[in-house]
Amino acid sequence: MPLLTDAHGHLQADRFNDDYQQVAQRARDAGMVRLLIPSYGIESSDGAFRIAPDLPWADLAIGIHPYTAVADAPGRAALLQRATDSRVVAIGETGIDTKRDFAPLAAQIENLEAHIEVAAALGKPLILHCRSLDDGDEAQRQLLATLKSSAISAPGGAKAFGGRVPFILHSASGSAAYVEEALALGGAVSISGLAFRPEESATGEWVRLIPRDRLLTETDAPWLTMPGAPDPRRNEPANVGLTLAWIAERRGEPVEPLARAIAENYDRIFPRDATLPPRLELAL
Ligand SMILES: [Zn+2]
Fold it and tell me: Which long-range contacts (CB under 8 A, 24 or more apart) does 226-229 make?
């Protein structure tokens, strides 16, 4: 059984209210060894902290999604102060979204910059969402431009992250050129069930080009259900093996060693606070 890693599963989402512990147990039974519960706003960040004691083996990220860049702005500074919490291993998800018009671009950029500042100050990587409308790439171009003009790309910027990756392209979507530019900035790339969609066919090409030590897998549960998932209406972490198998096939690699490399990437990218009990062993 491969070691499963879900670098992005929203177990605090409403749709898991009644059964998040069973959902987490199903993931463990399927071989999951690493789970990161990212947030997408103030309420879901509170939710992540609320369920954290029940899932001591998992990790958290807090942040504000571009969708609520305006709505959550008044509480942003207070929220980001909680990023120092030992359970929080990353900042996000945040980013740029021009696919849905939920917040003006200027507000999204300001929101992203505030997150970058905290990430660089704490040396915790950013989890970045980025989607453009149809075949466009304006969100991707804006994201790269903001990263390039930030502390991450400044001289010594990498030092803030102790040489670790400064950001993760979560549920990566876009062209090979975009992904290559993000890799050149030191980022890692996380693949979700989005990769199965016909309009994301480019992923099947560039997934082979990602250096093995910069690759992660995720579900974005409860969203982005992939073909073959038992419940098409609600994705869950246990399903990440389907995406892992797809990646392994595209890269022409055997699944199990790739799965182990991804779990090891997770540990390198999201180091755990030394005051916490260690993560699950990566036993064979
Ligand atoms: Zn997400």
Answer: 226/192, 226/193, 226/195, 226/196, 227/196, 229/193
